[in-house]
From TrEMBL:
Residues 499-594 form the Rcc01698-like C-terminal domain. Transmembrane segments: none annotated. It comes from Iodidimonas muriae. InterPro entries: J_dom, Rcc01698_C. This is Tip attachment protein J domain-containing protein. Pfam families: Phage-tail_3, Rcc01698_C. Residues 237-401 form the Tip attachment protein J domain. Coiled coil: none annotated.
């Protein structure tokens, strides 16, 4: 007796072929196909969707291109990094110490049986981590081992375990992450999935040959399955050979039968093996009663499927699950069947499979039993016959079971063929997922700003920092500082959000510092095209709106006109704000633009001893290496603590004595309460007045505690040999913390 080992569609609808399993017990092919276990399940859609870390986990067999989660086979454990940042102290107020912790890990993840061709995309917790071009979001080192028989141990694992205890995992493809920062993943190893390519071209024959060769089963591929392209398939669980082949058989409609010790693969749409004339039907031994010409049974409508749903892995959905349905317009059936095909199938291909499954189930509803003479002994299960069961009508039958009936007849159990529906195609609407891109953090542009005090609360040792990135993947940065000339860098300041910064496209022309500048204008290009500027009323400007740094000058503006994407024309200025009038005439094209309102501008507090010391800084975008960031040298001169330059410098002669006067200004935004003088803003009122000669050399310095000083005639004669007609003077207000403030200079 011979029976089909696998029948196309039959197991999908009726379950395991338990009816004939016992008849094959003891055969070598049966043992390989069914295995020693009493219950076995084949591959499932979600077998490779969740990363595991299980000892003894089976190594998946991969074919074509698939998305796998893998199995964590080694980990260093979470490695903690403690970072302490200290700000302030030594004259800059009390020290603030902040300690933060970050974690990273080294780990290895097994992908499947090797050798593989490549790893394309990588997802972490469902988000694209590395694209097909090899661009990845994090700067962690990544090494792919294809699973060759000659691959060497990974050096990171070897350093952790020792050379004698480190396996090379030969024959298994795996991937190693080195120094994987875990902050973006909740301080845990994320669920990684990988697009793995094993061979650029795969066919159904690739799987059959691989499995049968490993099981040492002789086979004959009469179905020519090497012509059936296979996008991708993975076997990730312990299963029997038959269960592993079930999804392929169901999707691509081929059968298998053992014939004389060889497992033959039959095409469902093959040509008939024989034509049975009516006279050969109802064969029986001489002297016995003639049996019925044939026996026929028809499956009732209620037992046939109304709808078939094929669940599959869709490459257009990044290999996530999708489903396609085929439905029959009938009122007599209510059976809805779902077929789980863990294959990589396009939507249209899966839809066509569902249509064919539904059609062939109805086409094969008729079962026919024939009793034929020994002339048909060569006919085996899976083969086809043409016979005339009714006069004048030929029917194409497919043999499902063969039994030799002594003393000389062959019993063939058949079903109507229905293979004509296998040419049926289908169209399916795509259900693509939104395209993902690896949004690289890119470079951080950071401006370290030695500016006047912007807020009264900033009356301490410190400076301002404004940074941002132009890349869509920029998610903040860390500013690192070196105290040893750029050799070693330590975290100094977090830049969690970006400031609105850019570059001028032309030069801001000089203008007045004492009233509105309604003539000048300048165009700025913002670094982040998503940032915006807005126009405001003059009253808003007077209340502090639209403050910006252009070059070294702090300005405020009323008008911001969008001239191109990310570009604005600014006008309606108040110039030289916060004592920066000295920079009004210094502008040029390509200067920095920093919007000082609305966030992103930070102020780290430093020790007073840091004032005047040149330090190297690096701004590294989150997810990049510090070593890749550009180093810049910056000196905090303590500008925020320096008094503004006095104004209204004047001189008059009292005899030959020169009386010098000026009006001081204040760094504070405090109200002008007495209507006479601005708040002092310093510990004590003190000034130094330099007397300069024609070579701009200081010949004498006078001190004062009020806004006037007298340059005596005797001192003038001592300095110049006679009382000069005019004298060049330079006046500084003094700070108890940083000494001289900004100067004002004039010829009196």
């Amino acid at each position: 007796m011979a029976t089909l080992v696998l029948t196309a569609v039959g197991t999908a609808f009726a379950g395991p072929l338990g009816a004939f399993a016992g008849a094959l017990v003891g055969s070598r092919i049966d043992a390989a196909l069914f295995g020693p276990v009493s219950k076995s399940e084949g591959p499932r859609l979600d077998d490779l969707s969740v990363q595991a870390s299980t000892y003894g986990q089976p190594v998946p067999r991969l074919y074509g291109t698939v998305r796998v989660a893998g199995n964590l086979i080694w980990s260093s454990g979470l490695v903690e990094t403690e970072t302490t940042k200290v700000q302030g102290g030594k004259g800059g107020g009390g020290k603030t110490k902040t300690t933060t912790f970050t974690w990273h890990v080294d780990c290895a993840i097994a992908l499947g049986k090797g050798p593989i061709t490549s790893v394309r995309r990588i997802w972490a917790d469902g988000k694209l981590f590395r694209d097909e071009a090899g661009v990845q979001k994090h700067a962690s080192a990544l090494r792919v081992y294809p699973g060759s028989e000659t691959q060497l141990p990974d050096p990171v694992i070897q350093a952790a375990l020792g050379p004698a205890d480190t396996p090379a995992f030969r024959g298994m493809a795996y991937i190693v992450f080195e120094h994987l920062e875990l902050g973006d993943f909740g301080n845990r190893i994320p669920n990684f999935t990988f697009e793995v390519v094993k061979g650029e071209t795969a066919t159904v024959a690739t799987v059959i040959e691989d499995l049968f060769s490993d099981a040492d089963i002789p086979f004959l591929d009469a179905a020519r399955t090497e012509r059936i392209d296979l996008q991708g398939y993975a076997i990730a669980r312990p299963t029997t050979l038959r269960s592993a082949l079930d999804p392929l058989r169901s999707a691509f409609f081929f059968d298998m039968a053992e014939i004389e010790g060889v497992l033959e693969v039959f095409p469902v749409d093959g040509t008939p093996t024989a034509k049975v004339p009516g006279g050969h039907l109802a064969a029986h031994p001489f002297g016995t009663d003639r049996p019925r010409t044939f026996e026929a049974k028809r499956t009732a409508d209620l037992e046939l499927p109304r709808q078939v749903t094929v669940q599959h892995l869709d490459p257009a959905r990044d290999f996530q699950a999708n489903s396609q349905r085929a439905r029959r317009s009938t009122l007599n059936s209510t059976a809805d069947i779902t077929v789980d095909l863990p294959l990589i199938l396009g939507a249209a291909e899966a839809k066509a499979i569902a249509e064919r499954m539904l059609s062939i189930a109805w086409a094969r509803r008729d079962a026919v039993t024939l009793q034929l003479p020994m002339l048909y002994l060569h006919v085996e299960p899976g083969m086809k016959l043409v016979t005339s069961l009714e006069e004048g009508r030929e029917r194409l039958l497919r043999v499902t079971r063969k039994e030799l009936r002594p003393p000389g007849t062959v019993l063939l159990e058949c079903e109507t063929d229905g293979s004509s529906v296998l040419t049926k195609g289908a169209l399916a609407a795509g259900a693509a997922v939104p395209a993902q891109k690896v949004l690289l953090p890119g470079v951080t542009v950071a401006h370290l700003l030695d500016l006047p005090m912007l807020r009264d609360a900033d009356d301490d040792a410190g400076f301002y920092v404004a940074g941002n990135g132009a890349s869509a993947g920029w998610a903040g940065a860390v500013l690192f500082r070196s105290r040893d000339g750029g050799i070693n860098y330590d975290p100094f300041l977090d830049l969690p959000t970006g400031a609105v910064i850019g570059t001028t496209l032309d030069a801001l022309t000089p203008g007045p510092a004492d009233y509105w500048d309604r003539e000048a204008s300048v165009t700025v290009a913002l670094l982040d095209p998503g940032d915006t500027l807005a126009s405001v009323m003059e009253a808003d400007v007077l209340n502090g709106a639209n403050a910006a740094l252009i070059g070294e000058e702090i300005v405020q503006f009323t008008s911001a006109t969008l001239t191109a994407p990310g570009q604005y024309r600014l006008s309606g200025f108040l110039r030289g704000r916060k004592g920066t009038e000295g920079a009004i005439a210094t502008h040029q094209t390509g200067e920095r633009f920093v919007f000082l309102i609305g966030g992103g501008v930070l102020r780290p507090v430093v020790e007073t001893s840091e004032i005047g010391v040149a330090r190297h800084f690096k701004a590294a975008s989150v997810g990049t290496l510090v070593s890749d960031a550009e180093s810049v040298e910056f000196t905090d001169t303590g500008r925020a603590l320096r008094p503004y330059a006095p104004v209204h410098l004047a001189g008059r002669r009292d005899g030959d004595d020169l009386v010098v006067t000026w009006i001081r200004r204040t760094r504070l935004d405090a109200s002008w309460l007495d209507g006479v003088d601005a708040p002092l803003g310093e510990e004590a009122e003190a000034y130094e007045v330099d007397i300069l000669d024609a070579a701009d050399t200081v010949v004498r310095t006078l001190s004062a505690t009020t806004s006037t000083v007298t340059y005596l005639a005797a001192d003038q004669i001592a300095d110049f040999g006679a009382v000069p007609v005019s004298v060049r003077v330079r006046v500084h207000q003094l700070s108890a913390r940083v000494g001289r403030g900004m100067p004002t200079e004039g010829i009196l």
